[in-house]
Amino acid sequence: MFCNVQVEKQLSWAKSCSTLLKRPDEPPEQNVAFPDLMSDSNLFEWAGISFGRSDTYRLYLSIKAFAETLPAEVERLRFFGMMKTRGSPYYIVEGNSVDEEEVDEKVEEGKSGANKYSYWVTQSVESGTWTKLPNVTMEQVVAARKFKKYLTGNLETPTVSFPPFNGNESNLLRAMIALIGGSTIISPAGYFELDEDSDPPVIKLAEAETLNEAFPKPAQELKEPDAWVHHEVELNELGRVTAMPEELDENGDVVEPDEPVELVPPLKGVEPEQWSLRYGPGGAGEHPGSVVFAKSLVWPGAVAVAEGKRFVNIYVGYGVKYEAKTYSPPLPAALQVEWVPEEEEEPLVESEDVRADPTPPQDEEEEED
Q1: What is the model's pTM?
Q2: Alpha-carbon torsion 319, 324, 326, 330, what sign?
Q3: Rg from Cα positions in the chain
Q4: Torsion angle of C-alpha atoms 69, 72, 73, 78, degrees rounded to 10
Q5: How confident is the model at residue 5 (pLDDT cuts 50, 70, 90)?
Q6: pLDDT for 182-201, tens place per residue?
Q7: 291-296 and 275-280 as β-strands: parallel, antiparallel, unpaired?
Q8: Where are the alpha helices (DSSP H) in the chain?
């Protein structure tokens, strides 16, 4: 019986692979660009990340087939990485957000902030089924920073945590992606520039002439932390990239917040103590064109690799941030007082315990009745 079940699983997997590997009769229209994983995987391997040649090729074909189903507004897909779970891992791709519905900026940001990109995940590359993750809210980002939790591998699983998290595993996964992406997606300085003409200013790819003058950079230069910048803006304490919408009082004047939160500047340089930079190959094989890779020391599994005129970013991990100290869950909040007497009122005094039997004795006649 056990052998029959295994054979059925193998046949089902082989059938899915055959569909993925089947060459189409006519070349499909490619409106959305997709990553060349077969080329990028060579760079990932220098940083110690590899899915294997066969699995990488099937993942490449799955993303390619998925890109054919997306509207042209997505423009391009990027392989974000793999999130490990207690079950099957999530493979994640990133694309430009095409959601046109208006959002409440006091609850979540739109395309100019934390929901700039949309994310799709799959746990079966061969099936070709990709599930879109929901938008992330400010509340979810703030809550996800306060606890550590391994994912189960089921997007519909309720998230049980303290402090409480408003959402299921799909929402938690999306919050993890937002935190990791904003903190670890970096590139060599000069690839991107700030477009001052837009309001608010946005980060865009540098002009071709600028790129040709700045790149390729020698590996010795790229090994220095000041040669790298964050081209995705990190989320601030409120779980946002942009400032909070202005609030007006009854007179129409702007209400200033009691504790204003500073925005993270765009194209911020990397913190040297948060990254490890190395060559590949090193030692006797080191040369000016060596591959340089940066590993995050805050989010283990986040890697950026640069070679010549190109760079790649990837994350492979459990979505858990590194802490120097042993993690301890936060203590519950203090119990709130139900009622506090005013100063003018007399304080409540607890009555003395009644030691005598409060039930009056009954007469014998009453007892007979």
Answers
A1: 0.85
A2: negative
A3: 28
A4: 70
A5: confident
A6: 999 999 999 999 887 776 77
A7: antiparallel
A8: 2-21, 37-46, 53-67, 138-144, 169-184, 208-214, 219-222, 364-368
